Request: fold
Amino acid sequence: MNLINLIIVIIISILMSTWSVADNHEKEKELIEKAKEITEKIDSLNEEMPLNDPFAGESSSNNKNVHSQNSVSEEVAKDVMSLYNFKLVGLISGKDYSYISLINSDGDPYSLTIGQYLGKIKLVDLRLTEAIFEKDDKKYIIIDFNNQIREADEY
Reply:
């Protein structure tokens, strides 16, 4: 915003120098008052930004994600590509392809299609409100839009 203020001051000084030659001082005073009003409006727009990202949702809090009743080992929770560090934000199901959209705790988006891997787990299916991943041990992890993550032997 300081750059905008500097530009306004330069424009005002150019206008004042060109109008100082003119005899009409009333217009000059009006322009100076308008310039002051504009500067005050710009200054009022210089609000401080919040410390947390209002668009990040729960991910900006200290408790990164609320997990289901299952206890998660620290190793899994610390893994950057663990499903427990993501939130399901969108599902698109079509005749030929189906996609899901996830965001991580930093707010970075990830899109996956059926058969793609998210770290060590593979997206195998999706329903209207949830996505189903398969682990290496042939167990399934299911995530829904409420960020409830559960593990199951079958889906």
